[in-house]
Design brief:
8 helices; single chain; rod-shaped; alpha/beta; 573 residues; four-stranded mixed sheet; 19-stranded mixed sheet
Length: 573
């Protein structure tokens, strides 16, 4: 018996007993002075470490411990948790009354500074006694009075920032997102809004609004009654009456519009849009206080501006489209105009003009229904109307004139078919056969000549326009081209001489255009000479027929005379 006890002691770790404490280890180290019991595994090998094993029992067994001492600790094999007795009841290990619990803190009383659950559905955050956060299955809010905890029945919403979604009141408000200082502060009834930015959607709004999106400081500060979209600093800031408006860019539609389906893209695009009913659009940047439709009454129907200062001054016009920097930029009351290209129709005040190309129709002012295709194409006289210019720097010089190309075109205007004119007897009245023929053709003087191209470009104003608009290098290249064109020898008529011939005949004045003003110049319709040439050929054929008949008669007489001479008796062999 004695030997067995000694053997058992040899197998136990070393117990070191001091006056006030006990140490349990394998190396005989003294226990820590502050510990009643110091259990150490330090001297055990790395693969032979051991630990303290707390008494294990079921929940039922734990409950039957008689008179448990305060602090009594056990491991509950039923709940798989450590439990201790706090002097009144058994509680989870380390489960303090105010600590966060994995299973929730249902029933806690929220304090001045608080983070926890007051019920099973909502996690709350409070600072200085004020609501500062909510997290539930359908609501996420963070920030002072962000979707206040007492009003968390607005479903499927998220808010982040001081007073963001701060007046959410009921389930009539759902699916909203507010990010930023006072974002969507004023929303009381409405759903499906997304507002990101300080003070976005802070002012009073109509009831039953929904589906709007705003991104930017004070973007769509006043929420419309029907869907709106704004992106940019103060974009659609004061949208009090517009529906389905879209504004993208800083201050785009900042003070309006009040219409429907308005569209603004760019800095200050449509910034001062006002009253009316229609669909306006402005796209571009405004800089220096103006933008695409920046001063436009976007309420006018069908105004569309794309580009810096495009439609910049249109105030009461309608049905206009401008694309490009400065396109249709100065007119205030124009209708039915289309300008595509930088500075196209830049100074137009007349209606119905169509321009496509850099600075196309830039010289048109009060003129109406002009058409220009090509860079600088169009008249340089502001009052001309009903002109058409096709090609780079093509310049009509009279109302109603159509011009293809310039002096640099080298007479290479054409295609794969002949030019066709309307010619239908059903639409011709007062038909006569008094076309001059040989009397006209024989009176004309065909000549060869060299065209003074630089003089023409100066006369039409094309050179002055290039001096104003084109880079110096481009202008130099054109002047060199004009000088080369001036060396080419052409064939044709002198219009003034041809006009004098036509005046003397008092017919066919459509062959030569006589200038209608000092800005205009003579032109010759060479194709119109075909009909007089046809008449001249017919007249020649008539004369040839007469001469042929006379010639045949003479030949017949000659043959008769020769026959008679051959039968005379006195004929000498």
């Amino acid at each position: 018996m004695k030997r067995g006890a000694l053997a058992l002691v040899a197998l136990l770790p070393a117990f070191v007993l001091c006056a006030q404490n006990i140490g349990v280890n394998v190396n005989g180290a003294a226990p820590a002075a502050s510990a009643l019991l110091d259990v150490s595994a330090a001297a055990l090998p790395a693969n032979g470490k051991r630990a303290l094993l707390i008494p294990r029992m079921t929940s039922a067994e734990r409950a039957t411990i008689p008179a448990p001492a305060t602090g009594l600790l056990v491991y509950d094999t039923t709940t798989l948790q450590f439990w201790y007795y706090n002097g009144t009841a058994w509680v989870y290990w380390l489960d303090e009354p105010d600590a966060w619990r994995i299973g929730g803190n249902n029933g806690l009383t929220a304090g001045t500074h608080f983070f926890g659950c007051v019920n099973d559905d909502v996690i709350e955050l409070r600072l200085n006694g004020e609501d500062s956060g909510i997290l539930s299955a359908e609501v996420a809010a963070f920030g002072y009075h962000a979707q206040r905890a007492t009003d968390n029945t607005a479903l499927n919403s998220a808010s982040f920032g001081y007073q963001a979604l701060g007046n959410a009141s009921s389930g009539t408000q759902s699916d909203n997102v507010a990010v930023g200082h006072q974002a969507l502060l004023s929303l009381t009834i409405g759903s499906s809004h997304t507002f990101v930015g300080s003070e976005a959607g802070t002012t009073s709004i109509p009831a039953f609004s929904g589906g709007s999106t705003a991104v930017g400081h004070r973007a769509m500060q006043t929420i419309p009654s029907v869907i709106g979209t704004a992106a940019g600093h103060r974009a659609l800031e004061n949208n009090t009456g517009s529906t389905f408006a879209v504004a993208i860019g800083a201050q785009a539609f900042m003070t309006g519009p009040t219409t429907w389906s308005d569209l603004g893209f760019g800095y200050q695009a449509g910034m001062n849009g006002a009253n009316g009913v229609g669909r306006g659009a402005a796209m571009g940047t405004a800089g220096h206080g103006f933008g695409a439709g920046a001063c436009a009454d976007s309420g006018q129907p069908q105004n569309y501006g794309f580009g810096y200062t495009a439609l910049g001054n249109v105030t009461t016009g309608s049905d206009n489209c401008a694309m490009g920097v400065g396109a249709l930029g100065t007119g205030t009351n124009v209708d039915n105009c289309t300008a595509i290209g930088m500075q196209s129709l830049a100074a137009a005040t007349g209606d119905g003009n169509t321009a496509m190309g850099y600075a196309a129709l830039d010289g048109v002012g009060s003129g109406v229904y002009n058409t220009g295709f090509g860079a600088f194409a169009g008249p340089t006289l502001a009052t001309l109307s009903y002109t058409s210019a096709i090609g780079y720097n093509a310049v009509p010089t009279a109302t109603g004139r159509i011009v293809f190309g310039t002096t640099l075109s080298n007479n290479l205007t054409g295609g794969f078919g002949a030019w066709q004119n309307l010619s239908d007897a059903r639409f011709k009245r007062d038909v006569r056969t008094d076309v001059p023929g040989l009397e006209l053709i024989t009176a004309l003087r065909p000549v060869t000549y060299r065209l003074d191209a630089p003089a023409i470009e100066r006369f039409t104003g094309a050179e002055a326009r290039l001096i104003k608009q084109a880079p110096l290098g481009v202008l130099a290249e054109h002047r060199a081209g004009w000088e080369r064109a001036a060396q080419v020898r052409h064939t044709g008529l002198l219009a003034q001489e041809a006009a004098a011939v036509l005046d003397s005949l008092d017919r066919c004045r459509d062959i030569v255009h006589v200038p209608a003003s000092a800005h205009d110049h003579y032109t010759v319709g060479y194709a119109s000479l075909v009909v007089p040439l046809v008449r001249a050929v017919q007249q020649q054929q008539e004369r040839i027929a007469v001469l042929r008949a006379a010639n045949e008669e003479l030949l017949e007489r000659l043959e008769q005379a020769q026959a008679q001479a051959a039968t005379r008796p006195d004929r000498t062999p």
